[in-house]
Amino acid sequence: MTTTRKISARGAARGRVEGVMRQMETALIDGTWRAGSRLPAERELAEQYGVSRNTIREAIQRLAARDLVQSRRGSGVFVTDQLRTGIASPWGQLVADHPALREDMLEFRRVLEGATAYFAAQRADAEERKRIRALLGELERSHAADDKPAEARADAQLHEAIAQASHNAMFLHLHTSVIGMLRDHITISGTGLREQDANASDQLLMQHRTLCEAICARQPEEARTAMQSHIDFVRARMEL
To answer: At what angle do helices 42-49 and 53-65 cross, to 10 degrees?
Structure first.
């Protein structure tokens, strides 16, 4: 092979690695591969992307160099939480240390989660609607058992599932970046409201039913309104 051909071949190989890496990055950004999840085997990825296992291996190495994935001996390659902690970690501590930031958090949640509910109603697939219904069922069971911590956890997981179902890469990226902080905030505020007032727990459950029904019925405006009304209720109760 001539020098020119060798250079051309190396360039083509680099291009394939780059292309596969970009597709894998998209899977990280859009939530296809969530933090903590295990990547498919090299052979499966090679078949999926139509390239050699060597190309897959190099693409994974590049992602690992940026701490987006991590190889565990004998277990496989796993997604790290780098996308989340890169933004969320300092804010999580600030919110914990400065209760005055609570209003900003709720304001942010109103905008972000209103949008994710809107798009989830438009775009959720059958499996995502099934998960949303299942989490609502878990919320209802926890409520019936008067298990407030479990109820608050199911509440947070439901919000996360709705964000996942929005299928908007930028919303998902932003939501992933702050999901830990939001989850903690939803769990803390939800548990607090439920412990302060039994009636609040009933109202929160009704709000989540309305929200899930709108999403599963593919009613975007109703879903957004339901989510914003829910956040407004939390905001008003926390001001009391």
So the answer is: 110
